[in-house]
Amino acid sequence: MSSLNDVARRAGVSIATVSRVINKGSNVNEETRAKVLKAIKELKYQPSRVAKRLRSKSASSNLIGLLIPDIQNPFYVDVLRGVEDVAYENNYAIIMCNFAQDEKKEKMYLDILQQESIDGLIAAPAHEKDPNVIKLLNDGLPIVCVDRGLTGKDVDVVVVNNRDGAYVAVDHLIKSGYKRIAYISGQKQIPSSKYREMGYRDAIEDNGMQVDVELIKYGDSKHRSGVELCEELLAMANPPDAIFTGNNLITLGALETIHKRELRIPEEVAIVGFDDMMWSISLNPPLSAVRQPAYEIGKRACELLIQRISDPKRSPIQMTLNTKLILRKSC
User: Fold this and answer.
1) Transmembrane segments in this chain: where (predicted)?
2) 328 vs 35, 61, 74, 274, 276, CA distance in Å?
3) Contact 282, 248 (CB under 8 A)
4) Tens digit of pLDDT for each residue in 76-100?
5) How far apart are CA 239 and CA 230, in angstroms?
6) Are 182 and 215 in contact (CB under 8 A)?
7) What's the helix, strand, coil split of the chain in %, to 5?
């Protein structure tokens, strides 16, 4: 992406002159203005709305951006509801962008949100070193991260205790007599996936058992991954007797495979999911699951963002909410 510096060099003028042209200043002659505009067009330069907002502190769009990786995941629908309720109470509107864990799509949406002059952003970054979100943070845009943070960055974050939530679920399976417990999850680079694996490993080791890496499977966080990875596990010569799934879409995929094989739950294979959705009780059998407070995550994130917008210099807050294991009939 071209910078103000690049435009100034191409046009043979100072950065200050480029800035005056962009901001429609009157003290620039027409020949110089034409050079700058030509350079902007050639370089496809896009003036930063964030920088313009910083120069005009009184400006406010009353718009908040919400960047999520998968609208098909009911977890993010509940996060959205929490964000929207707090935003509405404070006279903000939401622009929601679903980037489907695609960084090119994410960059496009963030460019659009900049053009819309959002006052702040609530984001579930693609990963802990997401360059697109980090750039906006460095530009001074108020940002709150949900579900995943940014490594080495001072940023507000609202997450759940993923490691503890996974630990409690796997520990319960072990204490219920299950010996070969598999873990199926989404993309490995996503922080929540990594912390859930840590909790899975901790529980196995704390119970005096050895971690079998063949029972750990990663996919792309979607239903199809649950179907395929569960099939791989159940096709093993020594298949698992219990499966811990990393999100609700993977859970549904795993259940599809289990039912297709006509295995009895929990007698032949048990299953516990991470994310307790309203439909969990309607499954056959009703699903045991780790409940995370998605609506509360959205509410807290929006509250923090509104605080950040009004007080940009306050210290960053990392808020960790607790999970709860809901026991039903699947384990």
Assistant:
1) none
2) 70, 46, 20, 14, 11
3) no
4) 999 999 999 999 999 999 999 999 8
5) 10
6) yes
7) 45, 15, 40
β-strand 288-291 against 324-326: which pairing, if any?
A: antiparallel
Burial of 171-192, coded b for 16+ CB within 10 Å and e otherwise, reads bbbbeeebebbbbbbbbeebbb
Q: Cβ contacts of residue 155 below 8 Å, gap of 6+?
A: 137, 143, 144, 145, 149, 316
Give kind and range of the element (H or E) at residue 291. strand 288-291
pLDDT tens digit sequence for 262-291: 999 999 999 999 999 888 999 989 999 999
- Cα 46 from Cα 114, distance rounded (Å): 10
For the record, the structure tokens of 106 come out as 């994410």
Residue 297 and residue 197 in contact, taking contact as beta carbons nearer than 8 Å? no
Closest alpha carbon to 89 in 60, 49, 62: 62
pTM: 0.80
